Amino acid sequence: MENNELKHNTESMKAANQPGIYKLIIFGVVVCMVGTYLRFAHDSWQMSLVSWIILFIGAIIAIKGVFKILDA
Questions:
Q1: Is 4 within a domain?
Q2: What tens digit of pLDDT does each residue of 1-32 get?
């Protein structure tokens, strides 16, 4: 049972559990939600294009946070 406790105290686990990484993921999800809302809130092609761009930027931000966890 003592080995399980030591396994979770490795440097990679400490790096993966940094609050900044999870804040980055939450920020990316919120940006995605804004982009999704804008897609359905307005009915013009310009607003639709802007909302798709916002949606993809949010997805890239969230994926960056996931890759930071995987890199640790």
A1: no
A2: 555 555 667 888 888 888 899 999 999 999 99
Q: Which amino acid is at 31?
A: V
Handedness of CA 18, 20, 23, 29 (dihedral sign): negative
Number of separate domains in the chain: 1
For every residue of the chain, DSSP letters joined together read -HHHHHHTTSHHHHHHT-HHHHHHHHHHHHHHHHHHHHHHH--SHHHHHHHHHHHHHHHHHHHHHHHHHHH-
pTM here is 0.78
